[in-house]
Amino acid sequence: MGAKEVIVGDIRRDEIIDKAVAGVDKVLLILPDALSGMVPMATRLIEAAKKNNVTHFVFSSCLNTVMELIQHWEKYEIEDELMGSTLNYTITKPSGYMEGHFPTGPGSVFETGVLTSFMKVDQPSNLISLDDIAAANVKVLLSDDEYYACSLDLCTNDNRTTREYAQEICDKTNQTLKVNMIPIPDFPSVHANDQFGRIAAYHGNHPYKENPLDFNAVMERPAKSFSQYVDDVLASK
User: b/e per residue, 216-236, with b = 16+ CB within 10 A?
Assistant: First the structure.
């Protein structure tokens, strides 16, 4: 896909971090939410970036960090560490991913009209396309110093419930929406089980709304709406 070099390895290991950062001007850090040890991993990467004179460190965090969610608190700790470092940094804060919440293909709500969820589906949330997250991060990375020492919310102007998002898909595919509630998935990791339990408890009972002001200002255009995402998916069939 255009990458000139790919390094495969465990980013929790110092030798992999040193290899990844050596000779690099700019870093975009995207961490896996369910992996334990996220904060010390990022701390070592920040230290390696300082040692290697990285000119711009971009961290993909998350929208509206809240204490109840483990991955939010971990990313908040990393934001705090980054802001207290000597690095030129930008923190991008995307909302939920359209492609993650409403994937396509066999078994999806696009194909079956069935929305399967371990979270309640009647709280407002904000979703953004992965394409728009990538575009905003690329623009920040390719900039000079315009975005140093700032945080940018990446989201759309949609603040709808999961049920409402799914209903639009069903309306456009001529299906009757059925919501299939399932238990919280069971993971081998205690950390992941705790995280997803908290996700279900929080997002099932709290709104997660946002304002697209930052994204619109950076990109000089609005992000793709959920309606456009659905239309694009259906047009590609």
Answer: eebeeeebbbbeebbeebeee
Question: Which residue bears the tokens 């509206």?
Answer: 64
Using CA of residue 136, residue 140, residue 142, residue 143, what is the dihedral sign? positive
The structure's pTM equals 0.92
User: How far is residue 62's CA from residue 96's CA, in Å, rounded to a whole number?
Assistant: 8
Residue 20: how many other CB atoms lie within 10 Å: 17
- The DSSP symbol for 213 reads H
Enter the tokens of residue 25: 């001007």
48 phi and psi angles, rounded to 5 deg = -65, -40
Please give the backbone phi and psi of residue 179, each rounded to the nearest 5 degrees, phi first: -100, 120
- The pLDDT tens digits of the residues spanning 111-165 come to 999 999 999 999 999 999 999 999 999 999 999 999 999 999 999 999 999 999 9
- Give the pair of three-digit tokens for residue 28: 């975009």
CA 117, CA 181: separation in Å to the nearest integer?
5
Read off φ and ψ for residue 209, nearest 5 degrees: -100, 160
Q: How many CB atoms within 10 Å of residue 102?
A: 22
Residues 194-206: tens digit of each pLDDT: 999 999 999 999 9
The model's pLDDT over 47-95, given as tens digits with 9 standing for 90+, comes to 999 999 999 999 999 998 888 888 888 999 999 999 999 999 999 999 9
Residues shown for the chain: 237
